[in-house]
Description:
Layout: H1 2-19, E1 54-56, E2 59-63, H2 68-77, E3 87-90, E4 95-99, E5 111-117, E6 124-129, E7 134-135, E8 138-139, H3 140-144
Antiparallel strand pairs: 1-2, 2-3, 3-4, 4-5, 5-6, 7-8
Amino acid sequence: MKQIVASLAVALGVVACGGGSAGSGEWANTFDGPGDDLFLVDDDFVCLADSRYDVVGRSRVWNALGRQDQAVEHARSGAIGEYPVGTVIQLFPSEASVKRGSGFSPETGDWEFFVLDVDSGATRIAERGTTGIANIGGTCLSCHGGASAFDYACFSNTGCGALPFFIDTDVQPEEDDPRCR
Ligand code: HEC
């Protein structure tokens, strides 16, 4: 009997965790390709003033697989072509694009899009995925798809169109980032 009560408690504990705040364990890694890949969890996203990021325009660029120079050079060049696997780009604290392994998502150029909840001062991945991830302006792909020749990144090319008028582009990302305070 004691044993049954103990296992019930464990089972209930697991249910309570699953239904509460989303831990990194909630997300399954769907990549099954043979090459390099980058599957990020909550704590991999930090304050945008962190030294891992290089500044390109108003965006922050990081390559988590050691290809920092290649990623930053490509972003700065504004050239057609692909980013190295492992590249993480953010313009706002609450959104990120991550270049996953080859074959992860042909529809989005292998980019995984994230909506991040940073209000608590830590990061919780609220949503992650590919064609279905959206913000108030529509799906990430609906705008970034216009820049497919530039590997779905906008920077100074005009493929993505414009940001909605109510976004204040004078604010640097970290000024808006509760994780930096
Ligand atoms: C309404 C169109 C639109 C939507 C929807 C949109 N973006 Fe963007 N995004 C842009 C534009 C335009 C820029 C360039 C803004 C600038 O640098 O001034 C941009 C910039 C970015 C950047 C910086 C790197 C780059 O491409 O310039 C990231 C990262 C990014 N967006 C991620 C996302 C994610 C993730 C989503 C979905 C949750 C999303 N975006 C949805 C239009 C959009």
